[in-house]
Amino acid sequence: MFLVVAGLLVWSMIRYRRRGDELPPQIHGNNKLELTWTLIPLLLVIVLFVVTIQGQNKALQRSTRPALEVDVLAFQWSWRFAYEGQGVEVVGSPGNVPELVVPVGQPVRIRLRSADVVHSFYVPRTLFKRQAIPGRTTEFDLTFEKVGTYQGHCVQFCGLAHDDMLFRVRVVSPGEFRSWLAQASRSGSPSQPGT
């Protein structure tokens, strides 16, 4: 879109540059032309609006049966991940990055809250961000399609140690996740950094 607009702009500047005092041919009152350059941008905006709504609905669609539910609490200046019904909790602190462990390819229901000020749950590789607002619980589902470690952080300035509000999402196979969860619930704390 930018190239089309920029190209037409450059073409117009070259084609209609001033060459003396004569004016280029003037088009006055051409209703068809005015209707055309009004309808084209309107149609583009409508198409972009429809595509945006479809993409937003897909991103916000929640699973009827999530494989896992995690209560995520943001606080100055770290995160707590509590696995609902499992007795497992991972708590971080500045300099001690917490790790959210989830199974690959399965929907994970996140309940996001803030204990103090506005924070932001952001995982750049998923292009997904949600605000954690005090007094409000935000629910959404995330499904990680690839095994690996995803970096996350708060992108809402929340005080002096804001840059310490990091977390990791470790995506593992379902079998490895069950083993991790069993070990974590037996020991009362998983042997992972940030616990």
How would you describe this protein?
- Strand 2 (about 80-85) and strand 3 (about 90) form a beta hairpin.
- It is built from 3 helices and 10 strands; from the N terminus they run ααββββββββββα.
- It is about 30% helix and about 30% strand.
- The two termini are about 50 Å apart.
- It has a domain at about 70-185: Cupredoxins -  blue copper proteins (Immunoglobulin-like, Sandwich), CATH 2.60.40.
- It has helices at about 1-15, 30-60, 175-185; strands at about 70-75, 80-85, 90, 100-105, 110-115, 120-125, 130, 140, 150-155, 165-170.
- With about 200 residues, it is α+β, with helices and mostly antiparallel strands.
- It has a 5-stranded mixed sheet with strand order 3-2-1-5-8. The protein has a 3-stranded mixed sheet with strand order 4-10-9.
Write a concise synopsis of the structure shown.
The chain is of the alpha+beta class and 195 residues long.
Strand order of the largest sheet: 3-2-1-5-8
* DSSP helix fraction: 25-40%
Largest sheet: 5 strands, mixed
Tell me, rounded to a whole number, the average pLDDT. Answer: 87
The CATH architecture category of one domain equals Sandwich
N- to C-terminal distance: 49 Å
* SS-based class: alpha+beta
Total of DSSP H or I helical runs spanning 4+ residues: 3
Topology record:
Elements: H1 2-15, H2 31-60, E1 68-75, E2 78-83, E3 88-91, E4 99-103, E5 108-114, E6 119-123, E7 128-132, E8 138-142, E9 148-153, E10 166-172, H3 174-187
Parallel strand pairs: 1-5, 4-10
Antiparallel strand pairs: 1-2, 2-3, 5-8, 6-7, 9-10
Which key features would you list for this structure?
single chain, 195 residues, Immunoglobulin-like, five-stranded mixed beta sheet, three-stranded mixed beta sheet
